[in-house]
Each structure stands twice: as C-alpha cells, then as structure tokens.
Amino acid sequence: MHLALLGDPVAHSLSPVIHTAALDAAGIAGSYESRRVDADGVAEAVQQLREGRLDGANVTMPHKQLAASLSDHLSEVAGRSGSVNTLVPRDGLVYGETTDVGGVRSAWGGLPPEPILLLGAGGAAAAALLALEGREIFVAARNQDSARALVDAVGVQASVVDWGSSVPGAVVLNATPLGMHGESLPAGLLVGASGLFDMAYGPTITPAVFEASERGLPSVDGRQMLVAQAAISFQIWTGVEASIEAMAASLG
Q1: Is-catalytic flag, 64?
Q2: What is the CATH number of the domain that holds 160?
Q3: Which domain holds residue 173?
Q4: Are 124 and 199 in contact (CB under 8 A)?
Q5: ∠ CA(227), CA(233), CA(239), 5° rounding?
Q6: Does residue 252 carry a pLDDT above 90?
Q7: What's the rounded Cα separation, in Å, for the pair 193 and 7?
Q8: What is residue 109's predicted lDDT score, i.e. its pLDDT?
Q9: What is the pLDDT of residue 101?
Q10: Mean pLDDT of 126-149
Q11: Please, which residues have CB within 8 angstroms of residue 75's CB and are 6 or more apart in sequence?
C-alpha cells in the first residue's frame, strides 16, 4: 500500500511516523511518504490516485481547499466545508473526505461544551465549525471578511469577532498554524478561558498548550488531534481499524 501526505511545509509532519506505526500494527505492507508540493504537485498526485499508482493521500496546508476542487466526489461534510484532508481512489475516481471533523469530535474529550472561540478561516477552521455545529461559536481571523466568508460558506451559526478578542468562559480552538514554530496566540486569549483545543503542533509543546497548563486549563494538543483524524483516514483507506495505541506510542 502506497500512501502520501501532500502539503507545504511537510518536513515537520508526524503523519509518516503514525501511519507507518498503524500499518505495522495491522500487518499491512506499505509505505507513507511526505511530499512537499505546490498546486501542480497536488494535481499530479490526484492523477496518480486515479491511475492506481497511489492508494491514498492526506492533504495538509495550504492545499485542503484545492484538494476539494480536484476531487471527483465529495462526502457531505467535505462538500459543506469545502475542505479535504483525505483522498481515496475508487474505480478510477478520487473521493474527497475530511477526517478533521471526526478528529475534532473524537479528540474533544473532557473539554467544556461551549462557548467556543475559533481562530482561523481556512480548511481546518471549516472542519472545526462543522464538528461543533449547534454550539455557541465565535470566529476570529486576521481578516474579518475571510471569517465572515467562512461562516457563510459552511452554513453554521456563528458570530464573527475581532482578531485578538477574548470570549470569557470560552474554549479557545486554534485552527491556525500559530504555534508550529513557537509562535504565541494573541495575548490574553486564555485569560478567563475554560479550555484550549490547539490543532497546531511542532517539535516541542506549543506556547498555547504550555500557557493552558500553567493556568490549569483542560487542553487538547495538536498531536492528539493528529492521531484522532489519522485513525479515521487509515480505516477509510484500508478497511481496518487503526491501532490508536500504536499510533500514539510512535510519537514517543
């Protein structure tokens, strides 16, 4: 089985580590490679899926919306979010799915249910909106027009607030890349927050997760989210339930 991750950047990604662990645990011969690609590279990979030269692919920033547009068919949630992180070949066609929705729901764990301050306006934020539909949601992005466009496109009830604004009692859900390279979230966001869900991860704990720990807040970090969504992708490709234990253990 030949699997790949498509994105830019990808050097930091732990997806090859956890998917290799899942393949080994399931006794499936195969490989999972990272590909740093531009738009043309994504299109080439989609064609390889159609031709049977790839058995599945994950898509990460900044190509999730592009992957949706290149798919022959989209699942309902992928269509609503306009975002795809999992590509699956079937009978010469490519199906687009977003396992980020299920990943958010699975990883949420003991975090309070509402309200939620969602940071970001890209594919990850779109998936998070769908995952949390029905709750009280506030959305903030550096570009307010992008935030409004996201809410309108996904069709989930949410209020747009200024970037950097805090929402007392909210769980802060970071769906931006902030933290991957040690960047901090806007100052004060976790003051008065009830928890943190950080979709970003890097080589060390992100500043947001560190601050949440210092404040005694419940939190979910990007690695937990990574494993949760990856397990869903793995089962879609292979038809075999992924070993969450093996995937998590591979992260050390």
Answers
A1: yes
A2: 3.40.50.720
A3: 111-217
A4: yes
A5: 120
A6: no
A7: 32
A8: 87
A9: 95
A10: 96
A11: 95, 96, 97, 98
- How does pLDDT run across 202-222, given as a tens digit for each residue? 889 999 999 999 999 999 999
DSSP lists the bridge partners of residue 118 as: 139, 173
pLDDT value of position 113: 86
8 Å CB contact between 43 and 70: yes
| Residue 92 tokens, joined | 């010469």
Nearest Cα to 126, choosing from 175, 167, 199, 197? 175
Residue 165 domain-assigned (yes or no): yes
Q: What is the predicted pLDDT for the residue at 195? A: 97
Same-domain status, 244 and 190: no
| Residue 88, beta-bridge partner list | 95
The C-alpha atoms of residue 111 and residue 114 are separated, in whole angstroms, by 9
The β-bridge relationship of strands 93-97 and 73-74 is parallel
User: Is the CB of residue 94 less than 8 Å from the CB of residue 71?
Assistant: yes
Q: 79-137, pLDDT tens digit by residue?
A: 999 999 999 999 999 999 999 999 999 999 889 988 999 999 998 999 999 999 999 99
Distance CA 89, CA 91 (A): 7
The model carries a pTM of 0.92
Q: Kindly tell me the burial class for residue 107, based on how many C-beta atoms sit within 10 Å of its own C-beta (0-12, 13-18, 19 or more).
A: buried
Residue 53 counted as domain residue: yes
**Residue tagged active-site, from 63, 64, 80, 223:** 64
Residue (of 48, 56, 41) closest to 2 by Cα position? 56
